[in-house]
């Protein structure tokens, strides 16, 4: 995806205003200059964390973790809660957009249209945890994210059965990955997603999807790429190197990287 980094700085200011947008540096323009000096065509992602429903206290931890991973991997990370980023001039600069525990209705009709066209033009999407608790009135988003949140029991330990290790998000995981998290049950599951891992409902209480309980998946969708992990509720997740490698592998897939 072509980057127009100089134009991007002006577009950001026009769309959002200096005070309403944030990035991995203090000033919105700074990552553009730094990136151009190091790499004429760096990868760039947008981390979007707007909430209209429940707010996850782990969101700042997730943002900090993704920024750190970006710095370590020469990926520019912009972060925002401002849906005004979802316009064609802005989105064209990103290899992937990460929905970090977004909740409920976060985009208006024009922003939905811009994001849909971004995906159709080859863009990438990575959804983390409550990204499935988002945009219930938008069937296209349901297919993109892969499922909608249905319910969850109390936070507890459970075993994730890793079914496919050929993906960057799961290649390092054990066959039976024991985790402590808020474990989602899902509805409206897209049958076309490629399931990478499932929850073993016999290892915890409150599962409602039965033997086929997907928790991590990916798929090519409507011209672009989509990855989702249902994990990442707790603040501790974002200091866990195993989870961080898992999340970053999914983001890398969304960016179109092998």
From TrEMBL:
Transmembrane segments: none
Domain of life where this protein originates: Bacteria
Residues annotated as domain ThuA-like: 44-254
Gene3D superfamilies per record: 3.40.50.880
Coiled-coil annotated residue ranges, if any: none
Protein name stated in the entry: ThuA domain-containing protein
Organism: Pontibacter toksunensis
Phylogenetic placement of the source organism: Bacteria, Pseudomonadati, Bacteroidota, Cytophagia, Cytophagales
């Amino acid at each position: 995806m072509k980057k127009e980094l100089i134009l991007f700085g002006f577009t950001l200011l026009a769309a959002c205003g200096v005070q309403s947008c944030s990035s991995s540096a203090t000033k919105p323009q700074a990552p553009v200059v730094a990136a151009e000096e190091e790499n004429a065509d760096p990868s760039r992602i947008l981390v979007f964390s707007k909430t209209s429903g429940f707010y996850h206290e782990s969101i700042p931890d997730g943002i900090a973790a993704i920024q750190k991973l970006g710095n370590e991997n020469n990926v520019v990370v912009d972060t925002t809660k401002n849906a005004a980023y979802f316009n064609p001039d802005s989105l064209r600069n990103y290899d992937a957009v990460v929905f970090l525990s977004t909740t409920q209705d976060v985009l208006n009709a024009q922003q939905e249209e811009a994001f849909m066209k971004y995906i159709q033009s080859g863009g990438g999407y990575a959804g983390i945890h409550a990204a499935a608790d988002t945009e219930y009135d938008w069937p296209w988003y349901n297919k993109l994210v892969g499922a909608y949140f249905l319910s969850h029991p109390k936070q507890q330990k459970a075993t994730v059965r890793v079914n496919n290790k050929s993906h960057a998000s799961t290649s390092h995981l054990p066959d039976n990955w024991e985790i402590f998290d808020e474990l989602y049950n899902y509805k409206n599951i897209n049958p076309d997603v490629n399931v990478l891992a499932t929850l073993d409902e016999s290892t915890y209480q409150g599962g409602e999807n039965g033997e086929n309980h997907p928790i991590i998946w990916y798929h090519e969708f409507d011209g672009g790429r989509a990855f989702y992990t249902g994990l990442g509720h707790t603040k501790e997740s974002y200091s866990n190197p195993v989870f961080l490698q898992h999340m970053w592998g999914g983001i890398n897939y969304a960016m179109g990287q092998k």
